[in-house]
Write a structure and sequence with these properties.
Length: 340
């Protein structure tokens, strides 16, 4: 279930209304009045929730799901387990997105006052001009918020933190002694889209951002909230300016990311990993503890713990250097052979 500090749960919706809303066909008309109160991914679905299946790789999870209903294609409808009503549609993920929008509305800053009456600020919090704090937010003792900072509803920021000018923080729980520099954006939706009947639709992002103690987030860096699980930044990790960290990423402790590093969705990074400037990582990659990624590298597959990789596509450092040297020598021989 999405965190109620950040998402307002809508009233339950009967399956017949959910089918009408999404254009899906109910496999069991006798279940039309069954209420649905939440959406969930297959691995976290509980009774009363609706999920979806769009990839055969997750067929085993679908067979074991506890969801009360699932958006599926015609070919997968017969595989729905007992107790799970199939909602048949050619666009299961897009239908899930419509249901998520209906059942879980993100909480937004409302009201005329810049500091919401229900916000809780401990003693010693310092606010510069132009700060806006939403309903139910909590700010710990000794924290300083710079000019124009926006803290969304339900956000918790720990003690002795520093937040630079015009930073925007939403859907996030932040530890103590965290430094967030000017212009950083934390908790915006991660990139998720799916084809629908009238074009591409956004997939609602229902997770959070968790930033542990002692982390530094550089200027104009973006850390997206999770799609359903959390995006997590481990203790004492240091992130440079203009870094992009996508949804569901899990970064370990004491990592370092130089400027323009880009981490795609659902990447898992171990403790003590270092990234040179402009390194990029493809989605669903695991990078082992203590690994190092050279500047401008493009990581397309898992990196073992303790290894140094470089190049694009990235590979172990010695191999990359040998291949680079061979290419340089081959090019030089060709130039020499072409000379009159």
């Amino acid at each position: 279930m999405p965190d109620p500090r950040f998402f307002d749960p809508g009233p339950p919706i009967p399956l017949r209304e959910l089918a009408r809303l999404t254009g899906a066909e109910l496999s069991r008309p006798d279940a039309a009045d069954q209420p649905i109160s939440a959406v969930a991914v297959l691995g976290g679905a509980a009774p009363g929730s609706v999920t979806f299946l769009s990839d055969k790789r997750y067929a085993a999870q679908f067979a074991a799901t506890d969801a009360s209903a699932a958006f599926v294609s015609v070919r997968d409808a017969a595989a729905a387990p007992e107790g799970c009503v199939a909602l048949i549609t050619p666009h299961p993920q897009a239908a899930y997105a419509i249901a998520a929008d209906r059942l879980h509305r993100p909480r937004r800053i409302e009201g005329p006052e810049p500091i919401a009456a229900s916000a809780r600020l401990e003693e010693g919090v310092r606010l510069a001009p132009g700060v806006v704090i939403g309903e139910g937010a909590e700010i710990g003792r000794g924290t300083v918020l710079g000019p124009g900072v926006v803290v969304g509803p339900g956000v918790a920021i720990g003690r002795d933190c520093q937040v630079g000018a015009n930073a925007v923080i939403g859907f996030a729980l932040i530890g103590d002694r965290v430094r967030i520099l000017a212009g950083a954006v934390i908790g915006e939706p991660g990139f998720g889209a799916a084809p629908g009947p009238t074009g591409v639709v956004d997939i609602p992002q229902l997770g959070r951002v968790i930033i542990q103690d002692g982390v530094t987030v550089g200027a104009n860096t973006c850390i997206d909230r999770g799609a359903f699980d959390d995006t997590v930044i481990g203790e004492n990790t240091k992130i440079d300016n203009q870094v992009q960290i996508a949804h569901n990423v899990r970064v370990g402790r004491n990592c370092a990311m130089a400027a323009h590093t880009g981490i795609s969705g659902s990447v898992v990074i171990g403790d003590g990993v270092q990234f040179g400037g402009r390194a990029g990582v493809a989605d669903h990659v695991n990078i082992g503890a203590g690994a190092r990624i050279a500047a401008a590298s493009g990581v397309m597959k898992d990196v073992p713990a303790g290894e140094t990789w470089g190049g694009s596509p990235a590979r172990p450092l010695k191999r990359w250097m040998r291949e680079t040297a061979w290419i340089a020598k081959s090019a030089a021989r060709r130039r020499e052979g072409a000379e009159p």
